[in-house]
Amino acid sequence: MNYMIFQDIFYIVVLIVLSIPLGIYIYKVMKGERVFLTRLVGPVENGIYKLMGINIDDEMNAKKYAVSAISFSVVGFIFLFLLQIMQGNLPFNPQDLQGVTWHQAFNTAASFISNTNWQSYSGETTMTYTTQFIGLTVQNFVSAATGIAVLFALIRGFILKNKSTIGNFWMDLTKITLYVLIPLSFVVAILIASQGVVQTFGHYKDVVMLESGDIKSLPLGPAASQIAIKQLGTNGGGFFGSNSAFPLENPTIFSNFIESICLLVIPAALCISFGKAVKDSKQGWTIFTTMMIIFVLALFATTFSEQFTGPVYSGVATSGNMEGKEVIHGVGASSLWATATTAVSNGSVNSMHDSFTPLGGMVPMFLMQLGEIIFGGVGSGLYGMIAFLILTVFIAGLMVGRTPEFLGKKIEPYNMKMVCLIILTPPLLTLIGTASAVMIPDVVRWLSNSGAHGFSEILYAFSSLANNNGSAFAGFNANTVFTNVVGGIIMLLARFIPMIATIFLAGNLANKKSVAASEGTLSTSNVMFVGLLIGVIFIIAALSFLPTLALGPIADYFITH
User: Fold this and answer.
1) Which of 26, 205, 244, 279 has the greatest count of CB atoms below 10 A from its CB?
2) Residue 317: pLDDT band with limits 50, 70, 90
3) Higher pLDDT, 313 or 504
4) Measured between alpha carbons, how far is 344 from 109 in angstroms, rounded to an integer?
5) How far apart are CA 15 and CA 17, in angstroms?
6) Radius of gyration of the chain measured on its C-alpha atoms
7) Partners of residue 191 on adjacent β-strands
8) How far apart are CA 514 and CA 432, in angstroms?
């Protein structure tokens, strides 16, 4: 247990140390300042603007920004859908894989453009190299960049005064991709490839198993390049079916640490960027502290449950619940990864969450149900947290009988309508999806367990889909027409309704004048406000999900104990 505590502390320290300079760097990139990559990347950036016919002085209002973001995603969806259907006739297909079914192509396209990366397939037996690196890897970059772009549109809403514009979507998308995501992914890909993560266009290799002597086919492919951005962009879609529990995706302790740091580093850094951008670093650190407190509590609960509440068998020495976990990672690294991947909207796994203890599995599920705001997806996690922050300010304003304000902008009815769309869309879709699934008579045949644990598998799946996470309990057969179609629709709605609401919230805030702080202005950067914000987050989540959690993991705990 002491080793696990040291490992977690070391992880958090490294995360903070890396996030501060990265956050400052991202702020400078988005502000248009020169950075160390400007000389190298600047000509490429300007060439892209010239090719696309973009005037760097043109800015967009909220409607045009939203239309640009949606139209870009629609084009990406159509391209990825058709690529999967036609992949059997395209090059880089050494295993002669055929095109996927229409409903799986729909689900996968919706999944990757929405930054969910839910997978109802096993990559090594379903997707060709072409689909993986031209379709899925590209969407890993641009869907992540879209989330960060929308965040900075919202940040401009707080900064600008009496303005009708909030920036240029195409410039934001280009800067984030060229200056942030590609350079970081290149470095991470080299690091993990050095540990044995595969990167090749060669055929699968036949190998002889040491124990049985049987010949098995070893899947290969250009994996390292996709895995780097899958972790950094909070995408999570694995190149292979077992995701980061597979040795060729995550072979060593060092690769595991690098990949797990990548899960949180950009979402954490964006808190620093936010503080720098609004000229009040305390605001960024307030959000960072709130996220970190909840993350540490969740990490402790998951690790404690996996170490001490698993089944104990007479005469068998135990070191925690090792079912579904890789020996090289153990309980500590597996619990850390499970907490991190569900705190951010990543969804990659290095162990099978279906094999966690009831309470150990409940914590990652609950982290998703909070709305993926505990660091959350790149960009989307922070603008979701800002929505909760505005809600908290609004509630506090009602308590004292004055118009609430945040960062000099008055929070009025239109703003709260947008905030409610951002906050309430994911839980509503989660509950609707879960309810629709449990009413289907055939659903019991899609589950590997019955009773409370079976319900937990369904609830976890739709919590993941509706919060753009992508992880699964791995006990739920998701490759059905119902799950692929309904799940795809849920992923699209969960991504784009809050995103559009955020853009229009940004436009409304930018159009407001700034009001000076007074003695009655609520401080949003002290300990009391952090406690109030945490309270609001937990109350919203508890009111939304406590009954379903009682039917699932909580009931499962009392049944098995």
Assistant:
1) 244
2) low
3) 504
4) 21
5) 6
6) 23
7) none
8) 40
Position of tokens 């305390």? 282
- Mean pLDDT over all residues of the chain? 91
* Separation of alpha carbons 232 and 86, rounded Å: 29
Which residue intervals of 377-412 are DSSP H helices?
A: 380-400
For tokens 């009001």, what's the residue? 515
| Tokens read off for 324 | 């579904």
Helices 413-438, 380-400: axis angle to 10 degrees equals 120
List the one residue out of 268, 430, 287, 297 whose CA is nearest residue 363: 297
CA distances 270 to 185, 280, 298, Å, are 17, 14, 21
The per-residue pLDDT for 499 is 97
pLDDT tens digits for range 258-294 = 999 999 999 999 999 999 999 999 999 999 999 999 9
Please state, in angstroms and as integers, the Cα–Cα distance from residue 66 to each residue in 170, 188, 496, 518, following that order: 11, 32, 10, 34
CA separation for the pair 456, 476 (Å, rounded)? 10
| 370 burial level (CB within 10 Å; 0-12, 13-18, 19+) | buried
Helix crossing, 380-400 with 137-159: angle to 10°?
Answer: 30
What is the distance of C-alpha 409 from the center of its chain? Answer: 29
Pull the structure tokens for residue 36.
């160390």
Which DSSP helix (H) or strand (E) runs through 500?
Answer: helix 481-510
Q: What is the pLDDT of residue 448?
A: 84
CB 99 within 8 A of CB 126: no
Q: Both tokens of residue 363?
A: 């914590």
Terminal CA-to-CA distance of the chain, rounded, Å? 23
The amino acid at residue 114 is S
**In angstroms, rounded to a whole number, what is the distance separating the alpha carbons of residues 355 and 544?**
25
State the sign of the Cα–Cα–Cα–Cα dihedral 11, 270, 71, 170.
negative
> Nearest 5°: phi and psi at 125?
-110, 0
- Please classify residue 97 by burial: count the beta carbons closer than 10 Å to its beta carbon, then call 0-12 exposed, 13-18 middle and 19+ buried: middle
Question: Tens digits of per-residue pLDDT, 327-372?
Answer: 888 899 999 999 999 999 998 999 998 889 999 999 999 999 999 9
Residues 6+ apart with CB under 8 A from 104: 84, 120, 121, 126, 479, 484
Q: Alpha-carbon dihedral of residues 190, 196, 202, 203, nearest 10 degrees? A: -150
Per the document, the length of the chain is: 561
- Nearest Cα to 377, choosing from 339, 345, 352? 345
Q: Tokens 């000099």 map to which residue?
A: 408
Cβ neighbours, 10 Å, residue 21:
11
Residues forming a β-bridge with 406: 409
Angle at 272 between CA 268 and CA 274, to 5 degrees: 110
**Which residues are CB-neighbours of 65 under 8 A, at least 6 positions away?**
153, 166, 167, 168, 169, 503, 506, 507
For residues 386-415, average pLDDT: 88
Question: Tell me: the pLDDT tens digits for 441-452?
Answer: 888 888 888 889
Beta carbons within 10 angstroms of residue 37's beta carbon = 16
